[in-house]
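Predict the structure of Small ribosomal subunit protein uS9c.
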Amino acid sequence: MLNPSQNKVIYSGTGRRKTSIARVQIIPGSGKLIINGLPGESYLQFSPNYLRRSCSPLNILGLNKEYDTYVKTEGGGLTGQADAIRLGLARALCNINPENRVMLKSEGLLRRDSRIKERKKYGLRKARKAPQYSKR
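Done. Here is the predicted structure for Small ribosomal subunit protein uS9c.
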């Protein structure tokens, strides 16, 4: 997709994890990460695990200094958002070059993690935790 104001090509991908949704756009640039208008480091609270996880598709392909990443994310917490960014980024990189898909798929980065919180049932304290049994 072509951005008319800058004449740069924008590649996009959507990632989801738990209740988080991340819309990722990558543009050829210097390697900066912007999440919801903030630098990626400050948005992810300078956590090396979140930063490593969210940028892992770029690191695997060796493209971490070649593309600027712009992300709009909502819902969930930082763990879900970081994983949603990872999936969206991997999908966007597949749009750039179909050959990237082989490497990303072998690393398991194109698979959506479908685990979500199980709903609470009536008569129970949580989804499966029952109140203490009293014999008498």
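The mean pLDDT is 92.
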